[in-house]
Amino acid sequence: MNRVTKLLGIKYPIISAAMSWVTSAKFVAAVSNAGGMGVLGPNAGQNNSARSLDEFVENVRSEIRKVRELTDRPFAVNYILPFDANGTSSFTNALFDVLVEENVKIVVVIGVIMHRNEIEKLKKHGFTVIYRPINPTVQNLIEAETAGVDALIVTGNEAGGHISQYEISLFTLVPQATDSLKIPVIAAGGVIDGRGVKAVMDLGAEGVYMGTRFVATHENPASDAAKQAILQVTSDEFLRLEGVNERTIPTIGGKRAFQLIKEGKHDEAGTYIKNGFKTGLLDGNLEVGTISISPSAGGIKEIKTCKQVIDEIVNAIS
Ligand SMILES: Cc1cc2nc3c(=O)[nH]c(=O)nc-3n(C[C@H](O)[C@H](O)[C@H](O)COP(=O)(O)O)c2cc1C
Questions:
Q1: So what's the pLDDT on residue 272?
Q2: Looking at residue 83, what is its pLDDT?
Q3: Which of 47, 293, 48 is nearest to 189 (CA)?
Q4: Does the CB atom of residue 78 touch ligand 1 within 6 A?
Q5: What is the CA radius of gyration of the chain?
Q6: Which of 24, 93, 130, 244 could disulfide-pair with 45, CB 3.0 to 4.6 Å?
């Protein structure tokens, strides 16, 4: 037991990351049933983008209800703050309403900019709030703590998905964060096994938030082609897509995105990569799509069940 397991009501402080297109009720429930905590990400359980706000809301509602059919353990939903400083977002507001209606208890909030009013609103309605700054620094982590969040996810630049604009590794950030904060820190980025979890806990983290390792599980909705690419890639092969803050496995689609960046076509590459998340990872079309994950994939040699991943970590750290 530590502050994270107590806060969330879970057995082990191991959380599967919110990942666009590659989470689902089945996957989230598998992580929660294994004693960790699953998080429904954007587009969870879907194969197509919602065509309207209403459809988006019903998709989220239906996936939350499916999780509850599969587990009675705690789970969370990803909550995306508006991207501009003064803005509100109809998407964020709709998400808030459905989470209240469905009595969701825990949210993993992400943002480029901290919106204190959103945090206050979530806390007022009784949510447990875990906050993950997309571009974490010691300063913005402290700012989030003063806004009243319950725990912070500290993401190192070696993470998968959209990465921080700052070149700060997990090894650098976690000790500085834990020295400066009173609330618990959960480490994210490049952690794939018990050795990694042990290391971040030695640095002061009280939990781990893992994306890439959990993509390569049987229950994850990612395509078989993407999972095989993860097993085969080595860490030195990754392409760094400067200007759009992504890294990708060098599939044909990945190489094309890299070329666009080299030609200075960042906007075009950005659109390409946004589509690539779904096309590559979920649909398995590696000619067009990208596979944006952490270079730690070089150490992943086997597709496992979520329970195996969690049990092996627990055995290694206990
Ligand atoms: C394919 C993919 C998609 C992601 N999409 C999201 C997202 O939609 N929301 C979010 O909060 N984080 C997203 N992330 C980041 C993860 O939440 C997490 O911070 C990251 O996976 C941790 O690093 P790791 O992959 O090395 O374990 C994504 C990560 C991956 C690999």
A1: 82
A2: 86
A3: 293
A4: yes
A5: 18
A6: 24
The CB of 276 under 6 Å from ligand 1? The reply is no
| Test site for ligand 1: of 14, 20, 39, 200, most ligand atoms within 8 A of the Cβ | 20
Q: Which residue out of 21, 77, 154, 162 has the highest number of ligand 1 atoms within 8 Å of its CB and is therefore the one to mutate?
A: 162
**Is domain 3-218+303-317 given the CATH code 3.20.20.70 in the classification?**
yes
Contact 114, 133 (CB under 8 A): yes
- Give me ligand 1 centre to Cα 147, in Å: 23
- Nearest-CA residue for ligand 1 atom 7 is 19
For residue 243, CA distances in Å to 7, 161, 240, 262, 271 come to 37, 14, 9, 10, 12
Question: Cα–Cα distances in Å, from 21 out to 176, 223, 236?
Answer: 32, 11, 26
pLDDT value at residue 308: 98
Instruction: Give pLDDT < 70 ranges for the chain.
Output: none
**Which atom of ligand 1 is closest in space to residue 22's alpha carbon?**
1
Distance 18 CA to ligand 1 centre (A): 6
What is the per-residue DSSP string for 15-38?
A: EEPP-TTS--HHHHHHHHHTTSBE
Helix (H, G, I), strand (E, B) or coil at 279: helix
Query: Where do the structural domains in the chain lie, given as residue ranges?
Result: 3-218+303-317, 224-297
